[in-house]
Automatic annotation (TrEMBL):
PANTHER family: OSMOPROTECTANT IMPORT ATP-BINDING PROTEIN OSMV. Residues 4-240 form the ABC transporter domain. Belongs to the ABC transporter superfamily. One of its GO terms (molecular function) is ATP binding. This is ABC transporter ATP-binding protein. Keywords: ATP-binding, Nucleotide-binding, Transport. It holds the Pfam family ABC_tran. It comes from the Bacteria. The keyword ATP-binding applies.
Length: 328
């Protein structure tokens, strides 16, 4: 399975002299969670919607799983791409189970297979099928509607997912819970995800890589850690919060920063930290325990890597500051 490739993609809207998207070339690798980040009007949603041909590019090519999207019948293209929007897009006159069943029914799935899939997906998004299958969207909270919208997008098990600010209209507490669930789902399913947001914290928390856009162009495409440590310019630095390093590292997972090692069992007198923890927690543990090295544990309590203070400094500090620290 290949990912999504943009080749010199440009989009002009009728009557506009400036392109909404200007000569974008990049690759989203299969199985990666990539976030499109930028302010309103930067072109991120336009770029997203050209993938499933809700918008047609003016110039350039987009390849999905190795095929030029212009050569694939639009319905065939969209069947392999799940799509989630901010307001969930549920059909109000249909029950939860009917909403989730829409695409499987179009594909001619047998009834038992559809019913099993509905139960499986509702459990995946933490909604009890016995309680929620027969409910209508108006009987659900905003967060529950978004969960059902995600389940519907996953119904036919598409390899690709497009998500356009899906949590933008949700309160902060529910939003964090939905982010946690999406992280859990992605870890289990390994979809290729393009996710649009203008929320920097959301991008840093969710992404394997981030595409930062401005005026229709890609300013930087990199991992969250590299964007924090090495912003391409002042625009990127200001966008992610400038010098607020404490907030930034609280959003970076230790697994993204650790030095990997062969999986081994833990042993006595080692100071450990979960792979789900963040770098701020790792630093706090080092200060509290005096440990120079933390060993990172997976969900089965096996060591999968380690993290040292010097390694964190090398990752996060500019080279000139690293030299100053060494001199001291």
């Amino acid at each position: 399975m290949s990912g999504i490739v943009f080749q010199q993609v440009t989009k002009f809207y009728p009557g506009s002299e400036r392109p909404a998207v200007n000569k974008v070339s990049l690759e989203v690798e299969a199985g990666q969670f990539v976030v499109l980040l930028g302010s309103s009007g930067c072109g991120k949603t336009t770029l997203l919607k050209m993938v499933n041909r809700l918008y047609e590019q003016t110039q350039g090519s987009i390849l999905v799983n190795g095929k030029d999207t212009k050569t694939v019948p639009v319905n065939d293209l969209r069947r392999q791409i799940g799509y989630v929007i901010q307001q969930s897009g549920l059909f109000p006159h249909m029950t939860v189970e009917a909403n989730i069943a829409v695409v499987p029914e179009m594909l001619g799935w047998e009834r038992q297979k559809i019913d099993d899939r509905i139960d499986e997906l509702l459990e995946l998004v933490h909604l009890d099928p016995k309680i929620y299958r027969k409910r209508y969207p108006r009987q659900l909270s905003g967060g529950q509607q978004q969960r059902v919208g995600l389940a519907r997008a996953l119904a036919a098990d598409p390899p690709f997912m497009l998500m356009d600010e899906p949590f933008g209209a949700i309160d902060a507490i529910t939003r964090t819970k939905l982010q946690d669930e999406l992280i859990h789902i992605q870890k289990k399913l390994h979809k290729t995800i393009l996710f649009v947001t203008h929320d920097v914290d959301e991008a840093l928390r969710l992404a394997d890589k981030i595409i930062i856009m401005r005026d229709g162009e890609v300013v930087q495409y990199d991992t969250p850690l590299n964007i924090i440590a090495h912003p391409h310019n002042d625009f990127v630095k200001d966008l992610i919060g400038g010098d607020d390093i404490i907030r930034q590292i609280s959003l970076i997972n230790v697994k993204a920063a650790m030095e990997k090692s062969n999986k081994t069992k833990t042993y006595e007198k080692t100071i450990t930290i979960s792979e789900k923890s963040d770098l701020k927690s790792a630093l706090a543990t080092m200060l509290r325990t005096g440990a120079e090295v933390l060993f990172v544990l997976d969900e089965n309590e096996y060591i999968i890597g380690h993290l040292s203070l010097s390694h964190i400094q090398e990752l996060l500090l500019p080279h000139n500051q690293q030299n100053i620290l060494r001199m001291k």
